[in-house]
C-alpha cells in the first residue's frame, strides 16, 4: 500500500486528540405550552398568551378578535371558554 492510499489525518501535527471524554448532553428542549399571559393582559390574558404562543403581536390578536365580532359566530363564548380552559403561566 502506498502512502497516497492511506486516509489523511485531520489534525495538522498528526497527533490524536487527548480529550476523548464524551460531549455533554444538553437537555431536550421543552415543548411550547399555551398559557394565559400574566404580563400582557387586558382582560383575561388569553390574547397575550395566544400571541406569545404563535409569535405575533398581542395587538394583532386583539384587533383580529374585535374584527371577528363583526362576523356571526360564538366568538365571545370561545374567548370565555379559552379563559377557563387555558392555564395561567
Describe, in plain words, how this protein is organized in 3D.
By secondary structure, the chain is mostly helical. It has a domain at 34-89. Helix content is 35%, strand content 0%. The protein is built from 3 helices and no strands. It has helices at residues 46-54, 58-68, 75-85. The protein is elongated. The termini are far apart. The model has no long low-confidence stretch (mean pLDDT 84).
Summarize the entry for a quick read.
The chain is mostly helical and 89 residues long. The chain has three helices and no strands.
Descriptive terms for the model:
89 residues, mainly alpha, elongated
Instruction: Please describe the biggest sheet, giving its number of strands, its sense, and whether it closes into a barrel.
Output: none
Which range best describes the helical content: under 10%, 10-25%, 25-40%, 40-55%, 55-70% or over 70%? 25-40%
Question: What is the quaternary state of this protein?
Answer: single chain
> How does the overall form come out from the CA principal axes?
elongated
Task: Write the SSE topology.
Layout: H1 46-54, H2 58-68, H3 75-85
Helix pairs in contact: 1-2
